[in-house]
Amino acid sequence: MFEWIRQAAKTRVHVSPRKFGVILMFSVLLMIGAMAFVWPNVKMVKMAYEYQSLAQQQRLLLKENNLLKVERESLKSLDRILFLAKKHTDLQSPEKGQILTVFLK
Amino acid sequence: MSKKSPTLKKDARAVLKVRLMTIAGFFLLFGAALGTRLFFLQIINHEELAALSKRQYADKEKIVYGRGNIFDRHQNELAMNIEVESVHVTPSKVRDKRHTAKVLASHLNMDRNKIYQDLASKKRSFWVKRKCNLEEVEKLHRLGLPGVRLIPEQKRVYPKRELAANVTGIVGIDDKGFAGAEHYHQSILKGTIVRRAIEKDARGRKIMSISEARKTKSKSRDVVLTIDEVIQFIAERHLRSQVEEYQADSGMVLVMEPYSGEIYAMANYPQFNPNKYQAYGKEKRKNRLITHSYEPGSIFKPITAAAALDSGRVETASELFFCENGKFKIGKKTYREAANHKFDWMSLQNIIAKSSNIGSIKIAQKLGQENFYNYIRKFGFGKKTGIDLPGESAGILPHESDWDHLSLPSMSFGHGINVTPIQMASAWSAIANGGNLMLPHITKLILKNGQVEKSFDPKVIRRVISEKTSRQMIEVLKSTVKSGTGIPAAVPGFEVAGKTGTAQMYNEKSGSYFKNKYLSSFVGFVPADSPKIVVLVMIENARKSHWGGKVAGPVFREISKEVLRYLNEPAKGERVFFLNHA
User: B395 Cβ partners below 8 Å, 6+ apart?
Assistant: First the structure.
């Protein structure tokens, strides 16, 4: 039943140094090819993680930027500016004779 | 070294062979088992496992593009969004429900029992609190409670608070516009949600997007209003100060550009803060300039006069009318002048300047019922103006066939007819701009990604009166401010055309007029001969005084003065220089 196994065990493969060199070279090329195939994928995944981290950072910055915009707009509120102008800097509305209008042609 | 016998060598080889065969047998069995397993995995259970695998690495990401912004005419933000988080719970994933309820209640300032009841219920998931503020969620982020998720959402923010709140309107918790421009432009402003496929790793971290969302920044569009933040502020400030000074119930101001129908300001007082709109009653949130109608009183008299002049029934403004010395009986009703004045013969110009009720009746009688009704309709009363805001009222104008013998005399001086302030301002714009009734509008532009997608140009509805009549009316209305009831509305350095109004307010419950509640008003435009703005002021139930000239006139004056200065309109006697750019 296991005759073919016995036969196979008895068989010896004779490889000449030249053939061995060719086989070795093909093996190395195969490995390089495999590496060349896998490497971009590994690189891509790595870059995708980097991109996601940057995208998250961008989201947070945009969120903060939006909050700052709201703050800026509420600081620009005319009610507040009028209050500050009158109370803190003692500004007053100009009288008729104090107004000078300049038009640029 | 000892030499092994050939028999021993043979035995050793035999043993090696058996061992090799055993190992080969194991490999064969292992290979067969592996093959069988692969057969089951790849062929028999392929679909099920492929789906399971897809679920593990593929997911969908929700990208929320918030509502579009609302800007004033100079693109200052009136309504914008910020990103906030909402607390969402899946009870089946919560380990310790009591503890979770306690923590959530303390951080979100909510009722602990209510949260626990929801957690213990059969609900699959529920919102604990929507759109929380930053402090509330900060600690929850750190705690990382199982079953509790913080979901990002957009929250509407009105950075200018009360400013133009009745115009911009409000949005509900689900970002749906409830009132004002938010409601009217819901389809334009509404935010969108885009779902895109993403790839995840074994730890659930997002690796990349499988389907890239379109590169557009935002799918929603922005709305630019015709409102000018500065003019709106000026109007609100002076209105508030006068309402408080005269202890009135409320007030309204409308500032309009007469040639284009663009509305610069719509001020209502009392105001409300749209960021906390729930704290205010529904009535306060209404824009009464368009939703409410009033008996206008004497500010309607110029409409009667303009109709009479335009129809040719009254040829000039100097035509005389007998004003019955203060008492005029029609049927059983006796009409009197305000403040018991007694006028005899007066020109049309003086009738308007001195605000004679009987004079207005005489003018309307000369005009005739049919003509009068037609002109009232042509001026846009009795139907909606078509302004781009929700909830506009058409006012009340009974059809001519339903008029009785008192309708014409009463309407001639603004009673027996209800008009909205926007209708009145539009009609006055027609007098100011040479006779064209313009479509009043509040929307200037629609923007998409900052670029103009649509612009709203001025639209003439119809010609109401001729240019000649318009010029005649401007002269008539100037005299009201120069020497008539409108003196307090005079703006130094400018000629003003305007008219005061003091109308007894109607009590709908009792069906009669209030004895001591008045609508004090002033409408006018300035500079009279080349109008830049039409300003309408209405103050309800002022307690210190009720005369339109005294209560509303100064508001008109102050607003006009500041707005004209803001619009670079120099006053007479003011120093003006023209400089070359170079």
Answer: B293, B381, B382, B383, B417, B418, B419, B420, B423
- Give the closest of A6, A69, A104 to B581, CB-based: A104
Q: Does B580 touch chain A (CB under 8 A)?
A: yes
Identify all chain B residues contacting A102, using CB atoms and an 8 Å cutoff.
Answer: 576-579
Can you give the residue ranges of every domain in chain B?
229-296+380-566
Q: What are phi and psi of B573, to 5 degrees?
A: 85, -5
How confident is the model at residue B214, as a pLDDT?
Answer: 53
Angle between helices B421-432 and B467-483 (to 10 degrees): 110
Counted residue by residue, chain B has a size of 582
**Structural domain boundaries in chain A:** 8-78
Which alpha helices (DSSP H) does B40-84 contain, by range? 46-57
B203 has a chain A CB within 8 A of its CB: no
Give the C-alpha separation, B141 to B354, whole Å.
Answer: 71
CATH H-level, domain B229-296+380-566: superfamily: DD-peptidase/beta-lactamase superfamily (3.40.710.10)
Give Cβ neighbours of residue B174 (< 8 Å, ≥ 6 apart). Answer: none
Phi, psi of B534 (to 5 degrees): -110, 130
CB contact under 8 A, A51 and B163: no
ipTM over 0.95: no
Residue B253: φ, ψ to 5°: -140, 135
Query: Scanning every residue of chain A, which has its alpha carbon at the shortest distance from the alpha carbon of B561?
Result: A96
CB < 8 Å from A in window 12-51 of B: 17, 20-21, 24
The pLDDT tens digits for B336-386 are 998 888 999 999 999 999 999 999 999 999 999 999 999 999 999 999 999
Region for residue B530 given its phi and psi (left: phi exceeds 0; alpha: psi -120 to 50; beta: otherwise) = beta
Q: Which two structure tokens, joined as six digits, stand for B299?
A: 């500010």
Q: Is B275 on the interface with A (CB under 8 A)?
A: no
What pLDDT score does A1 carry?
A: 60
Question: Which residue is it, tokens 């209708």?
Answer: B423
Q: Which residue has the higher pLDDT, A11 or B164?
A: B164
Low-confidence ranges of chain B (pLDDT < 70): 1-5, 210-219, 582
> Distance (Å, rounded) from C-alpha A80 to C-alpha A97?
27
**Residue in B167, B312, B372 with CA at minimum distance from that of residue B252:** B167
Work out the percent of chain A whose per-residue pLDDT is above 70: 92
Closest-CA residue of B relative to A63 is: B83
